[in-house]
Here is the input.
Amino acid sequence: MNMTKVLRSLGPIDIRNIRRDDLVAWMIYIPIFMAIIFRFGVPFIHARLLEEYNFDLAPYYTVLLSYFFIATCPMVFGALIGFLLLDEKDDRTLTALQVTPLPLTSYLIYRVSIPIILTVVMLLIIFPLANLTPFNLKVILISAIAAAPMSPMLALFLASFAENKIQGFALMKLTGVFLLAPIFAYFVTSNWELAFGLLPTYWPLKVYWMLSAGETNVWLYVVIAIVYQLLVTVFFARRFYKVLHQ
Here is the structure.
């Protein structure tokens, strides 16, 4: 089935479902709220720290933005789609879908594509909105492309291992560890930093750090980030497929 037809068929349904669910509807606005808080809150905190403790927060803007934007934004949209999948699994919508003309593969491609697009678009919005660092379209776009696969990876992780939304929220808290852990790599100056590369969430952050530092040998890291996350996404997609057929 043509993906445009899939979007026209499922898109309006998803929007209605999100609007009806107060539990997840607010999640869409989290990146915007964070950007506004950063825009007005961080400069204020920076000034106070500098004045009272002579501590300059500016050198740490990169690591702050990498965690709260590059990592958290994909997590938000991944969780949003993951909860939609859990709802559809609970309602047996996905079981019914298997006897419709819409192939399950096309459905999963749609589910994977939407959070990727939302992540890229939102990152291009919230960085200039936060206005903490000079806006560089190339840096943000490449970083967004490297981070975007994190969304479907998380969505299918939740849908594969959680039985319902309650478990989904618990697992989402667990994923916070995998988002926070790579931040420590920013402060590691030895080759031990690559040990964090076992986590697929490390590579998009590393891409942003390198681009922000003006490094040019970044494309290998971009490829690793995309390929590694997509491989993990495929693994979760296969598990999700098995869960549906149990």
